[in-house]
Design brief:
This protein is α+β, with helices and mostly antiparallel strands. Helices cover 23% and strands 27% of the residues. The protein binds iron/sulfur cluster. Iron/sulfur cluster binds next to helix 1 and strand 2.
Length: 64
């Protein structure tokens, strides 16, 4: 199990994370990312890591 963390003040709502893994990241009504769930099962870790790495603002990180 890994955990995703978001630095909301760094998010600019570009939405790359939502495009790549909408099961975990969604843009909220305020235009910033919301985590659907911070908990990432091992089977989804590489999938979510790719979305984390896609953020151009480095607003996301995943901790094992
Ligand atoms: S990719 Fe980064 S900047 Fe864009 S919505 Fe996701 S967290 Fe925010």
């Amino acid at each position: 199990m890994s955990t995703v963390h978001v630095d909301r003040p760094a998010c600019e709502g570009i939405g790359m994370c939502e495009t790549q893994a909408h099961e975990y990241f969604q843009i909220g009504d305020d235009g910033l990312v919301d985590l659907v769930t911070p908990e990432v099962p091992d089977g989804d870790r590489d999938y979510v890591r790719a979305a984390v790495d896609s953020c151009p603002m480095s607003a996301l990180r995943i901790v094992d």
